[in-house]
Amino acid sequence: MYTADYVWMTPQAREDLEKELADLMAVPNPAGTDETERTDQVVDAWLARKERIRQIHELLSRADHSTSPADDGIAEPGMVLTVRFDDTGDTETFLLGTRGTADPELEVYTVASPLGSALLGAVPGEQRSFRLPNGSIQQVTVLAAKPFGAHDPRELAKR
User: Fold this and answer.
1) For position 134, which CATH number holds?
2) What is an example of a GO molecular function annotated in this UniProt entry (predicted)?
């Protein structure tokens, strides 16, 4: 069951984030430099590093690395969805998840996006709609929903 506090990520993404965090934590703190060496650029870099550390901590603390979604065909984070845009007949395959926490070759839509929020809880064959930025309504039909890793990578080659 999906909750807003939960972040789903691939095992590889979790490993990459943990490595990035370790690298960021290993960088010497510029606070130890003497005042003549301290520049605005050094301080800005330190603040950016500190913010990235906070972001990674938040992602990792909200991620449950032991949970993969059930192969029940229900659209939820961690599921690779194939949808058809009903007005054009075009199809798209993407991961419903959190940006930066998945395979870089797989497009990611978050549950907070218009498409992602419209599809949350949908099953194959179900039609949903969402509002586009121009105000029009887009109809989309779920064709498939498979857990990440159990999806057919050949679907991505069709993009």
Assistant:
1) 3.10.50.30
2) RNA polymerase binding
pLDDT in tens, 100-151: 666 667 888 988 899 999 999 999 999 999 999 999 999 999 999 999 876 6
- pTM, whole model, 2 decimals? 0.68
- In a domain, residue 104? The reply is yes
Cα–Cα distance for residue pair 120/79, rounded to 1 Å:
10
2 domain residue, yes or no: no
Encoded tokens for 111: 């549950």
Name residue, tokens 């069951």: 1
| Domain presence at residue 5 | no
The burial class, CB within 10 Å (0-12 / 13-18 / 19+), for 73 is middle
DSSP codes, 1-57: ---TT-B---HHHHHHHHHHHHHHHHSPPGGGS-TTT--HHHHHHHHHHHHHHHHHH
Residue with tokens 């913010």: 51
58/86 same-domain check? no
Number of domains the chain contains: 2
For residue range 3-62, list pLDDT tens digits in order: 556 777 777 778 888 899 999 988 665 555 555 556 778 888 888 999 999 988 888 887
**102-129: b (≥16 Cβ within 10 Å) or e:** bbeebebbbbeeebbebbbebebeeebe
